[in-house]
């Protein structure tokens, strides 16, 4: 059963992949194109309270997310942010960062915070067709990366 954080980030509609206790979701309000949220399924509120096996299960998820985002977005850097202030369930954001704007389905997407910290208050809004296309591409790349 997903927790409130997973639901807030659009589960199950935004689900890219599931790997053991981890859900990989497309971040609905994204500071950069292709931003993901990786959410632990439990109601745990502290990263250090997770079982050791869940840490082990996380490594291939992070590695695959980085490969998939590099293929689709071609990031210059990648940020992994675990803030858990508003949404306290264990989760973190994976933000591809890029110096030059990215084009996707007729729109231009700028990393407003580059080269500094991500501008979390400036989000990319995808229309339904763009969101569905990006979801399909990311899911296909995730499956191919197995």
Beta-strand percentage?
Answer: 15-25%
CATH superfamily: HIT-like
Number of domains: 1
Low-confidence stretches: none
What does this structure look like?
- The strands form two sheets. Strands 1-2-3-5-4 form a five-stranded antiparallel β-sheet.
- The mean pLDDT is 96.
- It has helices at residues 4-8, 52-72, 128-144; strands at 15-19, 22-26, 36-40, 77-81, 91-97, 102-104, 107-109.
- It is globular and about 40 Å long.
- A hairpin with a 2-residue loop joins β6 and β7 (107-109).
- It has one domain (4-144): HIT family, subunit A (2-Layer Sandwich), CATH 3.30.428.
- The chain has three helices and seven strands, in the order αβββαββββα.
- It comes from Hydrocarboniphaga daqingensis.
Structural descriptors:
3 helices, alpha+beta, hydrolase, Diadenosine tetraphosphate (Ap4A) hydrolase, hydrolase activity, 146 residues, globular, five-stranded antiparallel beta sheet, HIT-like_sf, HIT family, subunit A, two-stranded antiparallel sheet
């Amino acid at each position: 059963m997903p927790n409130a954080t997973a639901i807030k980030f659009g589960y199950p509609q935004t689900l890219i992949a599931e790997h053991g206790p981890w859900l990989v979701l497309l971040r609905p309000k994204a500071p950069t194109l292709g931003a993901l949220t990786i959410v632990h399924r439990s109601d745990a509120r502290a990263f250090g309270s997770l079982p050791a096996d869940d840490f082990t299960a996380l490594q291939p998820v992070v590695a695959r997310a980085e490969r998939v985002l590099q293929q689709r977005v071609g990031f210059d850097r990648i940020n992994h942010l675990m803030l858990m202030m508003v949404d306290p369930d264990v989760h973190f954001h994976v933000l591809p960062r890029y110096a030059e704007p990215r084009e996707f389905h007729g729109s231009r997407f700028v990393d407003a915070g580059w080269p500094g910290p991500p501008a979390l208050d400036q989000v990319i809004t995808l229309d339904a067709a763009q969101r569905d296309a990006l979801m399909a591409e990311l899911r296909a790349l995730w499956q191919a990366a197995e």
